[in-house]
Amino acid sequence: MIHTEASMDALRQTGDRLADATVATLFERGEVGKFNTLMRYVSTAGAPLPDGLPDVAREYLEVTSVPPSWVDWGEMEKARLFFIDNNVHISTALSFASMPACYLVPHVAKLLSATHGLEYPSKRMAETGQFTVHLMRPDAFEAGSRFIPAAQKVRLLHASIRHHLVREDRWDIAALGTPICQEDMIGGQMFFSLLVLDSLHRLNIHMSTEGAEAYYYAWRVVGAMLGVDQEAVPATLDEARSFLDRYMIRHMGPSEEGAHLTRQLIDLYEEIVPGTFFDPVVSALVRHLVGDTCADWLRVPRTAWDTVVKAAPHLLGVLETIEDRSPLGAWALDRLGQLTTVLELSSLTRGRVMHYAIPEQLKKEYGVSGAVPRTRRWSPPAPSVS
Hints:
mainly alpha; globular
């Protein structure tokens, strides 16, 4: 599907009917606190739902407890292997490209500043990291996995934010459309899929076309489980490029909230990096992945490391060549990537499981190794905005 300005305007008018109706009923009946308390005990797929769970919540959880019927499990396995092969690079792209890209959309940056939980960058990044790790496990959709409950809760979290903003008249619907609308949810799906692939390409990570397509497909499955209308989502990477280019041109720009959220993210990762000597690498990496114009909008500081980081793709290209040619090298680098991802996530979570809950109010100051064969190396689709 190739979108036009009119079709994207239409996507701004729609949210997620199922989740929105569930949240509205929970608030009407005063059952949000009870729901949040009981849902802390629901963290794995297939577990019995707790007694006393509100009927509307029980119905929602039962309806959303299985993946879409159209899922191609062969493609999902390719995506899992792609993630194993590139996990540390994907984590880097999510942290230093995908999240800043969200901050480049002013109304999304304002929205991300709207809840108490999203004020804390370590929690925000830990939830994103855990969600992705849960998704790429071989048992992600089986009994005992943590991915499906996480997706169900994130979907309700989005609906609750829509509920608060509309009910409290803190969102200009005439100008901005529905908060967390279908256009923005599809845009988010692009940030976590196509933009990640773009960032890996920019870092000179070797990817097969099959692996890149499978990774994109996996996020289509994720989007469906988060309430994104997949009939409106680009089916191919070429169509995704057209959508993402148009979406960013329509909406991206500077904002106080975007700069503030970016500063939080940089501070967070500077705390994780040992010592202080390498702290500027964080800013330099963000600038390298999002580009100078966008980095300036986000007020990412320029540092002496900016030039050094530009040499990183050459080093990564050497390592990727070793991985391509040596099974032992591939195994060692994959193991190192897994360890790095685990250590990063452990630093963000402090060893805790992150829980998603429906916020009962918003911030008062809200202001509006089996790797996929490396054949047909992937190159990003060319920019295309008509």
